[in-house]
UniProtKB/TrEMBL annotation:
Organism encoding this protein: Parnassius mnemosyne
Keyword annotations from UniProtKB, A to Z: Membrane, Repeat, Transmembrane, Transmembrane helix
Subcellular location as annotated: Membrane
Superkingdom assignment: Eukaryota
Lineage: Eukaryota, Metazoa, Ecdysozoa, Arthropoda, Hexapoda
Transmembrane regions listed in the UniProt entry: 16-37, 49-69, 75-98, 119-147, 153-174, 186-206, 212-234
Alphabetical list of SMART domains matching this protein: CTNS (SM00679)
Gene Ontology CC entries for this record: cytosol; endosome; membrane; trans-Golgi network
Membrane topology: Multi-pass membrane protein
The keyword Transmembrane is annotated on this UniProt entry: yes
GO BP annotations listed: phospholipid translocation; retrograde transport, endosome to Golgi
One Pfam family in the UniProt entry: PQ-loop
Protein name: Solute carrier family 66 member 2
Length: 248
């Protein structure tokens, strides 16, 4: 009887741990953007945050959703992708509005239907970002539907999804290099990225997720560390930029 109770208790604890880990996967991916959102909202300055971070995650998570239809993986990872896409649109909406408010001289409107490559993902209205991702999603869904039975194609989608997400930090690294500063970027966001990506990679390994997931997760952690190194490297420039911004 004791063995049965112990076994049942172990099963219950195991379920709780599993549910907790799944919940952490869903919420943990979004959490790093809360301090960045609050910082942009408070300072009314979105220049330090690269919108290409949002593009990277939107593409990666849309591909991961398409991959689910070809090769079913754990449901929490699918939910995480949906929640992350919503979060990225919230971030884009904030950045577009802030940049509009900060315009001293009213610039010409740049929209998706202009089809101007020079201003790709630098549009001045939020609707253009929605339209772009809608076109990408519809085309991706149509191609996936036609080739869903082709195993190499499905595996390619999975690889592209996690590899694109693994390169998440790259736009921010480039932005920091261009500015020679990390002013406007939330350090808290990057720290949360790092710990979140470490947890996520460990989760992929433990839960026996497809190989693409944990390999690219390791690459993502490496890029996070590079950004943290930039925080140290550009610390003097960042401090000077903050003093200038405060008007000291």
């Amino acid at each position: 009887m004791d063995w049965i109770i112990s076994d049942e208790l172990g099963l219950t604890v195991g379920h709780l741990v599993g549910w907790g880990a799944a919940g952490a996967m869903i919420i943990g991916g979004v959490a790093p953007y809360i301090p960045q959102y609050r910082q942009i909202k408070r300072s009314q300055d979105a220049d330090g945050f690269s919108l290409y971070v949002c593009l990277t995650l939107l593409i990666a998570n849309t591909l991961r959703i398409l991959f689910w239809f070809g090769k079913r993986y754990e449901l929490p990872l699918l939910i995480q992708s949906i929640v992350m896409n919503i979060t990225m649109f919230v971030m884009i909406h904030l950045c577009v509005n802030v940049r509009k408010k900060n315009q001293i001289v009213r610039a010409r409107e740049r929209i998706f239907t202009d089809m101007d490559r020079k201003y790709f993902w630098a549009w001045t209205d939020f609707q253009s970002y929605l339209d772009c991702m809608l076109v990408f999603s519809v085309l991706g869904a149509a191609i996936t539907y036609l080739l869903i039975e082709v195993s190499p194609f499905v595996e390619l989608i999975g690889f592209l999804a996690v590899f694109t997400e693994a390169m998440l930090g790259a736009p921010q690294i480039v932005k920091n290099c261009q500015n020679k500063s990390t002013e406007g970027m939330s350090i808290c966001m990057v720290i949360m990225w790092t710990f979140g990506d470490m947890f996520k990679t460990a989760y992929f390994v433990i839960r026996d997720a497809p190989t693409q997931f944990w390999v690219c997760g390791s690459l993502q952690v490496s890029l996070d560390i590079i950004i943290l190194f930039q925080v140290w490297l550009y610390r003097r420039n960042t401090a000077a930029a903050r003093r200038l911004h405060r008007g000291d």
